Amino acid sequence: MAQIGYYVVLESSCTIWFGVMGTRSSLLANRNLIMSYVMNNSIINTDIRFSIVENNSFLGAGSIITDLILRNADQSDTKLNSMMVKVLVGKGIVNSGYYILGLAFESL
């Protein structure tokens, strides 16, 4: 079951399984949306599962969407014992400023 908003573009060979596509959003060819919510005015060119994508988003080919809850790093929170998401910047890997707190959704 899926919920599709108004003026949504679904290109060929797309799959939406227990998902929501918001108004004026697009799911490009050969992409899968599984148990996820894509809000309004978004363009998706990657597979998404167990995730929420905000309004006015663009996810290009090769984007990787995780099913994790992220928390913005706070310099005063020295006791938070959690891994920080790392990102590639140029030729180096740096901390993103977001801690991984745990899974956003449990497996069914």
* Structural class assignment: mainly beta
Q: Could you tell me the mean pLDDT? A: 79
Tell me the helix content: under 10%
User: How much is the radius of gyration in Å?
Assistant: 16 Å
- What is the N-to-C order of secondary-structure elements (H for helix, E for strand)? EEEEEEEEEEEEEE
Low-confidence stretches: 103-108
- Main sheet? 4 strands, parallel
Roughly how many Å apart are the termini? Answer: 16 Å
Architecture overview:
This protein has 108 residues and is mainly β. The chain has no helices and 14 strands. The protein has two domains: 3-59; 68-103, no CATH class. The protein has strands spanning 3-4, 9-10, 15-17, 20-21, 26-27, 32-34, 37-38, 43-44, 48-49, 52-53, 58-59, 68-72, 84-89, 92-103. The chain has a four-stranded parallel β-sheet, with no helix packed on it. The protein has a four-stranded parallel β-sheet with strand order 2-5-8-11, with no helix packed on it. A hairpin with a 2-residue loop joins strand 13 (84-89) and strand 14. The model is unreliable at 103-108 (pLDDT under 50).
